């Protein structure tokens, strides 16, 4: 579940028309789940919107909810972001150019980051039926099984959580809205600062013991049609700026995973949500406050899933004394 949730959070939405297509995932939901989504969104702080302004004293922060994979429709959002970036004196993002370079170097030089230590490989840890299903899923994503067999389960699960229909854009290295905004900052010689060290998300995902990672890897082997529908539906919600709905639909869509108990799915989602979103949001507030001491105009560009809810970045800013309003 954490692997699936991490992919949803990191990718957030994919180009449905060009890549992932399918019926709306909500057509699969039960009446009870659809009602749960509507109820949760109705009372959720900052459930809608991608562009916000937070002000405190003489300091202003523009907060932009991004997605991390390219879609042609992001060009319009990048144009919308450009004047805010140009008016800033610091850009804060989840990972800037220095962090990306550090991650690339670490993956090239530290085998233990994503590969298993000495010991049984994945096919030796899995039953044959599960391994063959895994091989088939990896082939659809262009990942050789011989390489994946030596990878840590959490990393393989991350690859599985991204549908085959989305892999071409990802492999091509096209930037999402975060990357577009960073490029705008670099063109304007605007400083870019990361909200957290590059290894933060990696450390969260690989913290579980290997046997738990194996169990989560089995969950990541969800049907490809279900994956495509989930991502396509989330994309529709993103561009409609219905971020709270996007998140709550992904929560109840976990009930559709084969062989997953409903209560267990809810518990896993809640725990992963706290680790991947809430705890990091709280840490980011400290970074934003520190940056605001030395800068009058900030832009904060983070995955849109971080904005919504009572533990979302916008609510935490409001609780920290900032006046938060949605930009038209």
Automatic annotation (TrEMBL):
<protein>
    <recommendedName>
        <fullName>TraB family protein</fullName>
    </recommendedName>
</protein>
<dbReference type="InterPro" id="IPR002816">
    <property type="entry name" value="TraB/PrgY/GumN_fam"/>
</dbReference>
<keyword id="KW-0732">Signal</keyword>
<feature type="signal peptide">
    <location>
        <begin position="1"/>
        <end position="18"/>
    </location>
</feature>
<dbReference type="InterPro" id="IPR047111">
    <property type="entry name" value="YbaP-like"/>
</dbReference>
<dbReference type="Pfam" id="PF01963">
    <property type="entry name" value="TraB_PrgY_gumN"/>
</dbReference>
């Amino acid at each position: 579940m954490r692997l699936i949730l991490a992919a949803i959070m990191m990718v957030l939405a994919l180009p449905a028309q060009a890549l992932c297509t399918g019926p709306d995932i909500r057509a699969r939901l039960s009446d009870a789940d659809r009602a749960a989504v509507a109820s949760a969104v109705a009372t959720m702080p900052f459930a809608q919107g991608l562009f916000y302004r937070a002000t405190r004293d003489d300091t202003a922060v523009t907060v932009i909810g991004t997605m991390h994979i390219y879609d042609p429709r992001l060009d319009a959002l990048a144009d919308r972001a450009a004047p805010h970036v140009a008016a800033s004196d610091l850009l804060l993002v989840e990972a800037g150019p220095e962090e990306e370079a550090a991650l690339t170097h670490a993956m090239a030089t530290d085998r233990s980051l994503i590969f298993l230590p000495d010991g049984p490989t994945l096919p030796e840890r899995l039953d044959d039926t599960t391994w063959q299903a895994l091989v088939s899923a990896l082939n659809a994503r262009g990942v050789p099984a011989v390489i994946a067999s030596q990878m840590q389960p959490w990393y393989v699960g991350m690859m599985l959580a991204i549908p085959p229909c989305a892999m071409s854009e990802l492999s091509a290295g096209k930037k999402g809205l975060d990357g577009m905004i960073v490029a705008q900052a670099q063109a304007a010689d605007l400083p870019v600062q990361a909200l957290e060290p590059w290894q933060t998300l990696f450390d969260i995902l690989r913290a579980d013991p290997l046997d738990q990672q194996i169990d989560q890897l089995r969950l990541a082997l969800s049907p490809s049609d279900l994956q495509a529908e989930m991502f396509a539906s989330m994309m529709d919600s993103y561009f409609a700026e219905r971020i709270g709905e996007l998140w709550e639909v992904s929560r109840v869509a976990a009930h559709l995973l084969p062989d997953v108990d409903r209560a267990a799915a809810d518990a896993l989602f809640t725990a992963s949500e706290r680790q991947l979103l809430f705890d990091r949001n709280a840490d980011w507030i400290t970074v934003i406050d520190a940056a605001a001491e030395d800068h009058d105009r900030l832009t904060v560009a983070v995955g849109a899933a971080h904005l919504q809810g009572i533990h979302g970045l916008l609510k935490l800013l409001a609780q920290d004394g900032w006046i938060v309003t949605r930009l038209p």
